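Exam revision sheet. Question 4 asks you to relate a sequence to its structure. Input first:
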Amino acid sequence: MYPGHWATVFPDKPAVIDAATGAVRTYGELNDRSNRLAQLMWTRGLRRGDHVSILMENNLAYFDVVWAAMRSGLYLTTVNRYLTGEEAGYIVDNSESQVLITSRALAEVASAIKPHAPQCATYLMVDGAVDGFEDFEEAIDAHPAEPLAEEPAGSFMLYSSGTTGRPKGILRPMVEAQMIADDNPAIAGLLRGLWGVDENTVYLSPAPLYHSAPVGFCQGMQAVGGTVVMMRRFDPVQALEAIEQHKVTHSQWVPTMFTRMLKLAEEERSGFDLSSHKVAIHAAAPCPPGVKRQMLDWWGPILYEYYAGTELNGFTHCGPDEWLAHPGTVGRSILGVIHICDEDGNELPAGEPGIVYFELPMVAFEYLKDPEKTRDAQHPEHANWSALGDVGYLDDEGYLYLTDRATFMIISGGVNIYPQEIEDAMVMHPKVADVAVIGVPNPEMGEEVKAVVQPIDGVTPDEALEAELVAYAREHIAHYKCPKTVDFRDELPRLPTGKLYKRLLKDEYWGKTGSRIV
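Answer key, structure tokens:
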């Protein structure tokens, strides 16, 4: 389904609520506004398969743009709002977007995009326009709130984030004959079958909408008639307040959000009524087992985990009871057959870590205008086996366990060391707010293990704390894996999506320059 259907069923029901202000976009309003924007883009010459980009903070208007593209057969690219004008301009240009919708809050960056995206012809700005941009409200008000004569289903065309080089556009083929009004069994089956989502669902989204999971899940919730509660930015106390105030039933998180909530003082986190909360979904990175156990103790058996990428080349899922029986797993596959292979592509037995490949009947995606990167993601012998760059292993029951990203494995004296295991242990220390473990140069061993720690507020980062953390690590993991030294930072390079840009840290210690968050 889509807002055109729900606008006839309950036009005054909130499709999305701004948690910060209480402002609402009803299904009737969402339907009318997305229709007007779809009509505008049609008159500007956009047709099925064309591209449009959005650069915007979490804003009610985000959903107008999403549904306008989805009901026009367009590819929508969501641009990371933290990029520079040049970096964002590359994405707008590379995607061949003909329209960019942005906001007054991001006017400075948006204005810097234009020289880098010469083929983009239409620039719209919500909340008032600056020079060079059309006012969004004035522009869409000139068009009827009627659906297009034909409404082919659109799709997202998102970009992978990275710390070196350029981001990659992830292009998945559209279903040729699919219309937006067609019932989509894939979305409905996933949300309803796994998590019991329906039109009564109230879904808390605490993450940036430019990221694939938040925007995809929010769109899915609205497709089945639920209400999205959108946080403008994550704050641990405000998230708990939102669950209580809006009687949230479902939510989605990344592990760093769990860690921040658990670090709250007991009186701060125990004073909220969370009884409406039935399903808490988490993904984006494996959750440290100690953190997940504490969350289960606090919230009860409502945590559901999945592992997937923007490429949608595979999908694993794990419910709370499964996780308790298989601690540390990210679940079993419900999309794609998992193969664990060594660097030469040879399959490995259960329990042995290697590159995680998913097998689908056909190739699921390509990286836009980059056949070499597309091929690099595929198995050496099987083009329909693809990998996201993660290392993991399967147990005898087919449960997947992720050990780390292949690019961040540390090789010290010929021994493979996976940073994630060390990070999972150290983040449980009460004085640690965040931690990254990397390999740094060692003339004898090749690499040695270093921890870079962000202490919690009020803790002094000194030699005594370093010794305490090293000793703590040695209590919990094998000594050869433990960090030899600990450095301290006020903040680690982690974006609100939960993604840690570890490459930026690693390059500092290896004397490399030019790495950027893109």
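Marking note for examiners. The longest strand covers residues 432-442.
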